[in-house]
Amino acid sequence: MGPHSTLAGVIALAALLVTDVSAQSCPGVTGRFQPKMGSGYRYSVLATGLRNPRHIAVDAAGNLLVAEAGSQAVRRLVLQDQGDIVCVQSNTQIISGSTNHGIALSADGKTLFTSNLASVTAYSYDAATGQVGQARPIVTGMSFQGSHPTRAIATSKWSPDTILVARGSQSNIDTLAVDRAAARSMIKTFSISQGLQAAHDYATGGEVLAWGLRNIVGMTEDPVFGGIWSVENQMDDLRLNGRDIHNDNPAERLSYHGILNDTENRYKGLNYGYPSCVPAWDPQNVGIDGLLVGSLFKPDNVPNVDANECANNRMTGRLHFHAHTAPLDIKFNKNSTAAYIAFHGSWNRNPADGYRVTRVDFADGQPVHHVTSRTAQVPVMENSNIGACPMNCFRPVGLAFDEKGRLFVSSDSSGEIYVIYGA
Prior knowledge:
Pfam families: TrAA12. The chain is mostly beta strands. It has a domain at 42-210 and 236-252 and 272-314 and 383-421: Neuraminidase (6 Propeller). It contains 4 helices and 32 strands. Strands 1, 25, 26, 27, 28 and 29 form a 6-stranded antiparallel sheet that branches. Strand 4 (64-68) and strand 5 form a beta hairpin.
């Protein structure tokens, strides 16, 4: 082959690559960043210009519902396949002044729930038309002046009358959270039908599913095995015996809470330790003999508890993640062989970490990796230049699968929605 033939081959290959890149963009949509994708995955940018999009949901007709914290609104994106990607056919605000984070649909898809600092609200919902009914608060009494205003919510197909509502701590170290009656740093379950008749008070109503969880921002139900899972943002600025150990401790946490309709659920009501006990990510840095990844220990300036209480009488997570990476959502694929987790990214460590979507592999309803593993995460979508974070990168928040196995990802910092194919 001569030099001209070689050059022609290079030009032809370049043309194919350009065509492939352009095929990943919807008309009029230009993403701000070019994510680095894990093996077997590709992406497209679905939407830009949203106002602080947080959690998202796919309705029964395949439309994407987006909770915009920036405008406290819900938007309905009607989607349409265009070649090998999906694009937005129409974008309409369907609810205003309703949310700052959470969104969920009932098991039958006919009721839409949103959450904000103070309450959870329900609306009748028609997926075909996007019509919503009158706002009906079903859980109230959650407001306080503090550092964690999100109220993650999730619904169940295994227990269709149940909604889960998480309420975080009032501050980094919330000393009152040692009292279960404070109704902070916990996940509670509520009857939807009863809430539609008369709103539940968060503090006095419902049932405690789990507590001692500093700030739960994402929850989900395993679609095949029925288990409830949460991802937790743990303590900042950690010190032990006057020594600063915060850069690599404590671990962020994935926790298991059993099956809601299991009358003998042994995980129901367990205490996970916060604020007195936190999980280790880098045990050597902590410096306590025998400590493993995920082991609970007592740091400085927390409510007094005997060290044995942390080791023996508090529940540990099922998997653990790099300190301060801030997991904000978790969703399973259709056959429950993997859970995908959105890490919003750190502000309390140097260098920065997180700012990615990863996969955790599952088998028979549980992660395949041991609780002490530091290698359970498989890269799916990452920032190409994490050194530019947090100011100049995408920051994943919400996740949602559609029936075709496409994974939608919101980025609040950039006002974008991405789609991951191959999940």
